[in-house]
Amino acid sequence: MPTRTSHRGDRRISPVFLGIAAVTAVSGWAVWTDFADVPGLAVFLFVTSAWIVSLCLHEYAHARTAFHSGDLSIGAKGYLTLNPFAYTHALLSIVLPVLFVIMGGIGLPGGAVFIDRGRIQGRWKHSLISAAGPLTNVLFAVVCTAPFWLDALDGVPVVFRYALAFLALLQVTAAILNLLPVPGLDGYGVIEPWLSHRIRRQVEPLAPFGLILVFVLLFFIPEVNNAFFDGVDAVLRQLGVGDLETGCGLDYYRFWQGENAFCASFAGR
Q1: Which Gene Ontology molecular function entries are recorded, alphabetically (predicted)?
Q2: Euclidean distance between CA atoms 189 and 181, whole angstroms
Q3: Tell me: the pLDDT tens digits for 35-51?
């Protein structure tokens, strides 16, 4: 008996996503105009909501690519609505990534879409589905840093510049982490279709632990941590963003720690 695969309602943008986008717009305006009494709170709301928007777009890119590659069941699962609560689990998809931003200033890959890979034919399509999410983070980083690499910072308020720089750092870290060829991450999903069946069977049990292994290495082995953030800093420098902007962006984001006098002096506060 055939089952419903998709209809127009499955692709209607979720009010939840629209609400988060509205928070991004309003808090971004507050940062730009220095409207808030506590600019750090406005930066926190702007970066956090924009980060959640990017998480939704990341997963939407996976889902949309899978939909056009042959898995029409994607629509019925709610993945084309941009609703953050449709992507696996609220804790794993939204809460943990936001907590990692607060604690470590790092973009944790969050959420997932369950794709019926049996409906999709062709190794290139499978690879593209996995690559679509991280490429969204790359695009987001390019957009956030456009004023920097276009040398168009005149007229951009300093605190807003800090917020954009920190948001770009999150996008770059998320893209790099996701593109690592580690089981369970998108980078492995890109190369998996090209591996032999024997290798895939051997690696499959490791997938649930891939992300955990990456973060253990990052947080407990200084050499790995230094190499990772050196790479992140190198990418950001190519995009015109320096350590001052990202560091001050993190300081403003953590508004509960009090205003950093050094960063505030550049902002004229």
Answers
A1: peptidase activity
A2: 8
A3: 888 899 999 999 999 99
Which of 59, 192, 204, 223 is flagged as catalytic?
59
Compute the distance between CA of residue 225 and CA of residue 247 in angstroms, rounded to an integer.
17
Amino acid at 20: I
Torsion of CA 159, 164, 165, 171, to 10 degrees: 150
Q: How far is Cα 27 from Cα 37, in angstroms, rounded to an integer?
A: 12
pTM score, two decimals? 0.91
Instruction: Mention every residue, 6+ apart, whose C-beta is less than 8 A from residue 265.
Output: none
Q: Is 59 a catalytic residue?
A: yes
In the predicted model, residues of the chain with pLDDT beneath 70 are 1-9, 88-94, 104, 109-111, 268-269
